[in-house]
Amino acid sequence: MKRSNTVIISLVTLTLLMGCSDDHAKTESHDAHHKTTGHEASPTGLVLNDGKKWEMDEHTRGSFAKMADSFLNADHASMEATGLKTVGNDLQSELDVLIQGCTMTGEAHNQLHVYLTGYIPAVKALSEKGDLESAKQVKHYLEIYDDYLE
């Protein structure tokens, strides 16, 4: 069962990344433009939209609000590995809903993909390892979401 979950997670991630490979190339070009025009990208590669946050659709905002509410209000330091793995699996389920319902296009969608290239592996690591370091990584991504995306 654990192996089939890993395969499913890997396939969903691959589908997400492969389905938008053209968008990713545009994002890289856009990031290069921002770097050469004085708009520095964050360490995650995210950039603002001329100083403003990128507008997400209602589906994306709702999914991230649900993930942030459930994750950021828990005391992960007091959890054991099995509890952290469960939290990771819950986040992965919500990520699956997000990906399946994605209808966004344009540069806001590209920036969401930049964000997800770090967030998805962090969630996967948490669901597989159930360690505090993975939980800290997920927390980092959920906290910076509001800095770049709305």
Query: Helix share of residues?
Result: over 70%
Total helices: the number is 6
Shape: globular
How far apart are the first and last residues' alpha carbons, in Å? 36 Å
State the total count of DSSP E strands.
Answer: 0
* Strand content range: under 5%
What is the string of helix and strand elements? HHHHHH
Structural class: mainly alpha
**Poorly predicted residue ranges:** 5-39
Could you describe the largest sheet, including whether it forms a barrel?
none
The whole-angstrom Rg is 16 Å
Q: What is the overall pLDDT average?
A: 81
Question: In the residues, how many domains can be counted?
Answer: 1
Describe the protein's topology:
Blueprint: H1 2-19, H2 21-36, H3 58-72, H4 81-100, H5 106-129, H6 132-148
Task: Give your account of this protein's structure.
There is one protein chain. By secondary structure, this protein is an all-alpha fold. The protein has one domain. The protein is built from 6 helices and no strands. Helix 3 runs antiparallel to helix 6. About 23% of the residues have low confidence.
Short synopsis of the structure:
The protein is mainly α. It is 73% helix and 0% strand. It contains six helices and no strands.
Characteristics of this structure?
single chain; mainly alpha; globular
